[in-house]
Sequence to fold (142 residues):
Amino acid sequence: MILWLKALHIVAVVTWFAGLFYLPRLFVYHAMAEDQVSRDRFKVMERKLYRGIMTPSAVVVMVLGVLLIAQYPLEALAHMHWLQVKLVLVFALYGYHGWCGRLLRNFASDENQHGHVWYRWFNEAPVLALLAIVILAVVKPF
Ligand code: HEM
Fold:
């Protein structure tokens, strides 16, 4: 059972990250777009990616993660320090996800406040989170 949950958990993480990497990339191009036709096309792409793929994947990741936690007795969880640190980083990742949603709404109403260089830096955050979280979950260093 636990291995099935883990496998599906990882699949949902992959689909979530497809969006966490690509949506800010769309923001880069959207911030550089100079005509209304392009801007309107980006709005549709961003909305479909966020609502259709990213948010459902984020929910599935959390549901399966909680089911995985439920497989362990409390005493065991208390000693899984890597998991506690992982959950803090995962919490921050959900914050990043929500931030993406707010930026998307700003773009949707043509009220974007950042330039493309800002979005290029913004795009790097999930890379760092992915690196740290996978090392914690797989290597379990403490
Ligand atoms: C609410 C969110 C999450 C919860 C509650 C959660 C919880 C868990 C738990 C309890 C396990 C089983 C650990 C074990 O049996 O050793 C697990 C496995 C795993 N998680 Fe998560 N997780 C969440 C989000 C994430 C995210 C965002 C990532 C990647 C960025 C991730 C990557 C992994 C990986 C790669 C494994 C497999 C580790 C292994 O056994 O090799 N998880 N997760």
In short: The chain has one domain: 2-139.
